Amino acid sequence: MFKGSIVALVTPMTDEGQVDYESLAQLVAFHLAQGSAGLVIMGTTAEAATLTMAEQHAVMAKVCEQVAGKIPVIAGNGAMSTSETIAKTQFFADLPIDGYLTVTPFYNKPMQKGMLAHFTSVAAATDKPIILYNVPGRTGVDLLPETVAALAKVNNIVGIKEATGSLARLAELKALCPADFLLLSGDDASFAQFMLAGGHGVISVSANVVPAAMSQVCQAAFAGQNAAALAMDAKLQALHQDLFIESNPIPTKWALKRMGLIKSDFLRLPLTQLEPIHEKRIEQALQKAGILEQE
């Protein structure tokens, strides 16, 4: 179910900082038309940390209604504590989502034993599939392959979004986890190599901007067309890098506004809008990716 190019969707906002549901609908329609294999709602890229629970629920409800089962909708339910993560999981339980993306508890830096207990407890609170999310650069803690292998034995823990960007880590996970355990890249810059080395897909920031191209790389990788996959990905490398020139999703929102897909690139504090000095660089990356015409 959760394979191919899955987009970590932004949350469009008005210049006054309210959720822009009109732009949200436009984004969802864009991804349905462009071949995205799924949507992650309320992940890091969605600025979930700055949205109220009511806002998060409302955004998910709108997306689920529009998608209507055409592609999977995955809800981000991560939090610093196990109790809060379980509460979020249950708060979203009335929605027709297809699963959860559960990040490692951030800031408090639990040990492996604590993360094993955390994810096991969260999984017991739902009958929906859970994808683990390991992103040490954001959370300050690394979910190690041995712990992932232990969690893979839990019936509804079905995969991991691995954002270290390490192909050696992928090899360890493949060696330790069951063959049907989903291995999804969380690092756009290395995702093509990740897939060619046996990964099943990507949960992507770049896919906000280039969903069709990301999907095509995935399809080429699935077909064993290694040279084609790498050639297509090469055109996206500048974008993969430059969408992180400032904290995600600052550059992505600017790019989406530049493309006319959202009306405002507003972000809630403490995130701020893209520095003007970086605008030309993002434009050039969009041009290299074939999104904007060369000037």
CATH homologous superfamily annotation: Aldolase class I
Our count of domains comes out at 1
Overall number of strands: 8
| Strand order of the biggest β-sheet | 1-2-3-4-5-6-7-8
The Cα radius of gyration reads: 18 Å
User: Ranges with pLDDT <50 over ≥5 residues?
Assistant: none
Reading the helices and strands in chain order gives EHEHEHEHEHHEHEHEHHHHH
Q: Which CATH architecture would you pick? A: Alpha-Beta Barrel
* Structural shape: globular
Average predicted local confidence, pLDDT: 97
Number of helices: 13
Helical content stands at 40-55%
CATH class: Alpha Beta
Question: What class, by secondary structure content?
Answer: alpha/beta
- CATH topology tier name: TIM Barrel
How far do the termini sit from each other? 41 Å
Biggest sheet overview = 8 strands, parallel, barrel
* Strand composition percent: 5-15%
Family: Belongs to the DapA family.
Catalytic activity: L-aspartate 4-semialdehyde + pyruvate = (2S,4S)-4-hydroxy-2,3,4,5-tetrahydrodipicolinate + H2O + H(+)
Main location: cytoplasm
GO molecular function, one term: 4-hydroxy-tetrahydrodipicolinate synthase activity
